[in-house]
Amino acid sequence: MVILETVLEATWEHIVLVYTTLLVSIAVSLPLAFAALYSKKIEFAVMKFANLVQAVPSFAVVAIMVPFLGIGFTPAVVAIMLRALLPIIKNTYIGLSNVDPALIDYAEGVGLSQWQIHRHIRLPNAYPAMFAGIKFAGILANSIAVLTAFIGSGGLGEIIFQGLIGYNTRTLLAGAIPAIMLAVLIDVSFTMLERKVTPGYVKE
Amino acid sequence: MENMLTIRVIADVWERHLMTMRTIEHLHMFSIALMLSIMIGVSVGVFIYMRPKTADPVLNFLNIVETIPDLALIVLLLPILKLGAGPTIAACVLYSILPVARNTYTGLKGVDEQYTYVAHAIGLSPREALFKVRIPMSLPLIAGGIRIALVFCMGVVTLGGLVAAGGLGTVLQNGIQLYQKDAILVAGIWTGLLAVILDGFAGIIEKKLHERYGTW
Amino acid sequence: MQTERLFERIDSIHLEGITKKYGHGFAVKDLDLEIQGGELLILIGPSGSGKTTALRMINRMIEQDAGTVTINGINTKDADPVRLRRNMGYVIQNIGLFPHMTIGENIGLVPKLEGWDKERIKERVRTLLEFVSLPPDMFMDRYPRQLSGGQQQRVGLARAMAMDPPLFLMDEPFGALDPILRKQLQKEFLKIKNEINRTIVFVTHDIEEALVLGDRIAIMNQGELVQVGPPEELIFNPANELVADIVDTQRKFKHMDTLKVKDLMSPFDEKYVLEGRTETCDAVDVMTERDLETAFVFEGERLIGQVTMVELMKCRTRSQKLSDVARPVKIFQPTDSVAFALSEMKSTGEYLAIVMNSNDPIGILISDEVLLKLI
Ligand SMILES: Nc1ncnc2c1ncn2[C@@H]1O[C@H](COP(=O)(O)OP(=O)(O)OP(=O)(O)O)[C@@H](O)[C@H]1O
Ligand SMILES: [Mg+2]
Question: Which residue in A47, A112, A146, B77 has its CB near the most CB atoms, within 10 A?
Fold first, then answer.
């Protein structure tokens, strides 16, 4: 029998896991995306690696953490991160590099520094693509976070795995349904954010 | 850790965990899932193309399915389809319909009207125009969708190990539960490699199709 | 699927009171027209006068709001549209060759759907390609994008002939081609037309084309038929101002005495130049790439003649140099009078000449274009 308290606790753990990973992923992705802007080599390496990892099944990525990092919260964060990085880096990079070159020329012409150009021109231009990437990464993180319970990260997956042991449908649903609701929440909230940062967004 | 993966260790793990059989199970589930995904996905894509009013609702619905955590989706299907390969394959298909259907739809819509027009004018029936002109001209995009579906299916099939569906996920599951690092490494790398190779193949096919059908 | 022939030959086509409305306007209004078996009927008129609409109602690509179309006494409404269209060859301005099929597959598509066997299709494709002066071995396996505009248009024609239909519908088939190319293809088409002896309904904007090709010409304006008859009748007895305007060839020659060649020539372009030592096979590729039907052959600075794509493709088997096959070309000075130039060209049947200033080529004179510019 599942108790409401257990579910709430697992949900909270789940949220912490997802958002921690997401924040770390963003923090790692942005510098890489900028670096890719400056060096073709980094661009190539980052994109190739990220695309490759994308094809590897999540469960394999999660499992491979165990021999290296053991079980618990940290290997879970690393595993999720490996999958969540690609969409953020890729989209941010595309957003950053798709700036009208004339605009950059103009900015240099009126005397903006490199830093100011990044801050005031490239970054705002990349926001819509970047947020689309973050939304996708968030949904992915939420999904893999269910799985990482298998290597002891806690969260809603733990309830699901309990349900699987005794094949208890109610327990299974008690884990699955909140996880789905969290996914929808991430989708909706990030879609709203995305609209906010897209200049001139018109509601369809 | 360093000397963990000698040939002997690999062979040993392979033997102990019946990995030949597991690989066959894995690919078996995967092929069924991918075939179904392609068939259903392309049909849905063609359907929403022929009834444009249904396109938005159908694609929006599939988008929601897409956000559901994969393991949660399998678990939701368990009470309906029971333990075994059923829920895993069904989940694969549910995920993969969107990329295939969306790309099919975009591809069909992207075909220049003049070609359909000419097709009808020289005496092709609507059906022939669809199969001889529109679908072939959309093949590069459809292939792109199938490639995404392939990656999805590989991922979900691997999860099947957790719900008694067999496949390489089972080896990973046992490895983690028994804390056998060598088994985890061998099965993990093998599963990853398999997925990357198949994806690479699909990439080559996609590129060929682009060369053949994609430039006009 | 094998569809039975609706008709082996056309005895007559009757359009009776056909009308097509878009919103409040009429695209075609109460049109009565009889097309006789074996003739080439031109539909001509200002833009938006309903030519295309009228044409498309014949093969039911557009369904009329009122009136009937009968072919050999069969009401087209009673025929299956797919079957109807397989009995008609259809050629349009932008050709619409399928980019994912080779030239052979494009031409053989309908025969294949009709269930012909492979050998028979291949045989047919070869015959047709030869018929439109494209060597089959060279073109069968190419994709449309590897062909020049003129070559694509020829393939379009070949595709229309695939099922050997008794009726052709052609909507400005040469409309998208540049004047030199158009003139060349018209000449070829005239030859083909006489050989196949089929009924053709041909839409055009170009009165020259109409006068050259048409057995009868139907003039349309604002969705209505203004006059129909053989070219002479339209010229000598125009029904009204509009007809007179359209067929008035007199005016064109008004200022011809005072005009100089340099006023009406097209500027010369390096792309027209080929070297005399180039081999004919290579020349075909170069010309395809540059989308040329005719090119001028030079040896260094010296002009030695002209070559056309059609001729080059014929003598492809032997590896010859362009200098061996180039034909003489008419040369004018920029200060020659246009009247003189035109009559010279007419006397030898050339439609193309080169304009040289001492030794430099500076322009090209195209007889049709000159006429059009004079209107
Ligand atoms: N699908 C359509 N919807 C609305 N109006 C149309 C449509 N097709 C044609 N029309 C109108 O009908 C009239 C006749 O068109 P049509 O294409 O038959 O002219 P046309 O003589 O072939 O002109 P052009 O020489 O420019 O090809 C035009 O005024 C055109 O705007
Ligand atoms: Mg028209």
Answer: A146
Helix axes C179-196, C367-374, angle to 10 degrees: 110
A146/B175 CB distance under 8 A:
no
Q: Are C228 and C218 in contact (CB under 8 A)?
A: yes
Residues in chain C: 375
Q: What is the mean pLDDT of chain C?
A: 84
Across A147-151, C3-7, C233-237, which has the greatest mean pLDDT?
A147-151
What's the half-sphere exposure (Cβ side, CA atoms, 13 Å) at B44?
A: 24
Residue C43 CA: which ligand 1 atom is closest?
21
Model confidence at C249, pLDDT cuts 50, 70, 90, reads low
Using an 8 Å Cβ cutoff, are A7 and A158 in contact?
no
Domain ranges for chain A, please list them: 4-199
Under 8 Å CB-to-CB from B30, ≥6 apart: which residues?
B92, B153, B154, B157
**Selection from A56, A55, A84, A76 nearest residue A156 by Cα:** A76
What is the location of CATH 3.40.50.300 in chain C? Answer: 12-251
pLDDT tens digits for range A3-60: 788 888 888 888 888 899 999 999 998 888 888 888 888 888 877 887 788 889 989 8
In this predicted model, what pLDDT tens digit does every residue of A163-198 receive, in sequence order?
888 788 888 888 888 889 888 888 888 888 878 777
Across B147-161, C44-58, C359-373, least confident range: C359-373
Q: Strand C302-308 to strand C330-332: parallel, antiparallel, or no bridges (unpaired)?
A: unpaired
Which residue has 């349309």 as its token pair?
C220
When scoring B112, B122, B127, B130 by the number of chain C Cβ atoms within 10 A, the one with the most, hence best to mutate, is: B122
The reported pLDDT for the residue numbered A200 is 61
pLDDT at C202: 93
Distance CA C239, CA B182 (A): 97
The type of residue at B81 is L
Q: Looking at the domain C12-251, which fold is it?
A: Rossmann fold (3.40.50)
ipTM field: 0.86
Paired strand residues for C364: C266, C354
- The answer to whether C52 and C223 are in contact (CB under 8 A) is no
Confidence of residue C211 (pLDDT cuts 50, 70, 90): confident
Distance CA C360, CA C118 (A): 53
Structure tokens, B157: 């099939």
* Residue B91: exposure state from Cβ atoms within 10 A (0-12, 13-18, ≥19): buried
pLDDT value at position C2? 64
A187 contacts B181? CB cut-off 8 A: no
Pairwise CB contact (< 8 Å): B124 & C82: yes
Superfamily for the C257-374 domain = CBS-domain (3.10.580.10)
Q: Regarding the domain with residue range A4-199, which homologous superfamily does it belong to in the CATH classification? A: MetI-like (1.10.3720.10)
Q: Given this model, what pLDDT does residue A204 score?
A: 39
Say how far apart CA A61 and CA B5 lie, in whole Å: 18
Give residue C212 CA to ligand 2 midpoint distance, Å: 20
Q: What average pLDDT does this structure show over C124-143?
A: 88
pLDDT score recorded for residue A67: 85
Return the closest-CA partner of residue C166 out of C339, C61, C11.
Answer: C11
Instruction: For residue C220, give the ligand 1 atom closest to its CA.
Output: 21
Nearest-angstrom CA–CA distance, A29 and A38: 15
Identify the nearest ligand to the CA of C220 by its number: 1
Question: Span C28-46, mean pLDDT?
Answer: 90
**Disruptive mutation site among B3, B67, B172 for chain A (greatest number of A CBs within 10 Å):** B67
Among C18, C20, C22, residue to substitute to test ligand 1 (most atoms within 8 Å of Cβ)? C22
Categorize the per-residue pLDDT at B183 as very low, low, confident or very high, splitting at 50, 70 and 90: confident
Q: CATH second-level architecture of B7-213?
A: Orthogonal Bundle (1.10)
Chain B residue numbers touching C88 (CB-CB < 8 A)? 123
Q: Which residues of chain C does CATH 3.10.580.10 include?
A: 257-374
